[in-house]
Design brief:
The chain has helices at about 10, 155-170, 185-195, 210-215, 250-260; strands spanning about 5, 15-20, 25-35, 40-45, 70-75, 80-100, 105-115, 125-130, 135-140, 150-155, 175, 180, 200-205, 205, 225, 230-235, 240, 245, 265-275, 275-285, 285. It is mainly beta and about 290 residues long.
Length: about 290
């Protein structure tokens, strides 16, 4: 149908977009929708060249660490470059958007790979050994500006969830709680030094006014303490489960919200407050933009 998936940061701010196909054919494309949170975008080419066929999509939930993957892209303008590596890790989290009000959001469930990814690979496919797309190459971690063996890709199952909305609506609506949590440390790291009742979950540092969490009565921290060489806000609720799903840490909570919930849905949070377990129902809002 002429839909092409790439990265949001590849097309952001572009006035005109041209797509070069493998046979050298050029076609102009228009942007149907973008999502800065997942760093995904969908283009439309209305006049596909003869012989253009879509790649088969895989299932990123079946990926395993150590599995071979192949990255294809145009690093430094070198068109059609293929590099090979393995899945180095699963479930990484990348920071994405900081809003005008100072809120920051993350992109969860990211694939890490040592297949060489460089500037110009962004938006290209990450394939399994059967040629199925398992991710969209999106970022690297580097101190030199080039590949250092740490590349990242958005999993294809995230693409499958978000792209249909980008095609139909031009945007994706993310569920939103409205809490702030200091995710520099997990509760497993903080439990003993802060004498917390559990070693898993999300310690709520603060609750944004007027948000779903605020309306549901969630409580943020009440005092600052020094621990692990820094200042940490304590005394707030600890979220230990959502809809019966145990929450290990803040990234786990975000991944569940993105993967399993929608704007307007009512979720049940299991929290610890003053040492007592209780359940709180929250109707999710939409992330601010």
């Amino acid at each position: 149908e002429g839909h092409i998936v790439t990265n949001h940061h590849v097309v952001e701010g572009a006035d005109t977009i041209w797509v070069t196909f493998s046979d050298g054919t050029l076609r102009e494309a228009k942007v149907l929708g973008t999502d800065p949170y997942s760093d995904l975008a969908v283009l439309l080419v209305e006049d596909l060249p003869p012989g253009a066929v879509p790649l088969e999509l895989g299932d990123s939930d079946t990926l395993q660490v150590g599995q071979r993957v192949i990255a294809i892209g145009n690093p430094f303008g070198l068109q059609g470059t293929m590099t090979v590596g393995v899945v180095s890790a699963l479930g990484r989290v990348l920071p994405t958007v900081t809003t005008a009000t100072g809120g920051s959001f993350s992109n969860p469930e990211i694939i890490q790979t040592d297949a060489a990814i460089n500037p110009g690979n962004s938006g290209g496919p990450l394939l399994d050994s059967q040629g199925r797309v398992v991710g969209v190459n999106t970022a690297i971690r580097t101190t030199t500006g080039g590949n250092m063996g740490v590349g990242f890709a958005v999993p294809i199952n995230t693409v499958k969830r978000i792209v249909p909305r980008l095609i139909s609506e031009g945007t994706y609506h993310y569920p939103y709680l409205g809490i702030v949590s200091d995710n520099r440390f997990t509760l497993a790291q903080l439990a003993s030094v802060l004498d917390l009742p559990v070693n898993y979950g999300v310690l709520v540092s603060s609750v944004e006014p007027g948000t779903p969490a605020d309306r549901a009565g969630l409580r943020g921290g009440t005092q600052n303490v020094r621990a692990l060489g820094t200042t940490i806000r304590v005394g707030g609720d600890i979220i230990i489960a959502i809809d019966g799903h145990r929450v290990e840490d803040f990234n786990d909570l975000i991944a569940y919200l993105v993967r399993e919930t929608e704007v307007g849905q009512v979720v049940t949070l299991t929290i610890l407050r003053d040492g007592k377990q209780m359940e709180v129902q929250v109707r999710l809002g939409e992330r601010p933009r």
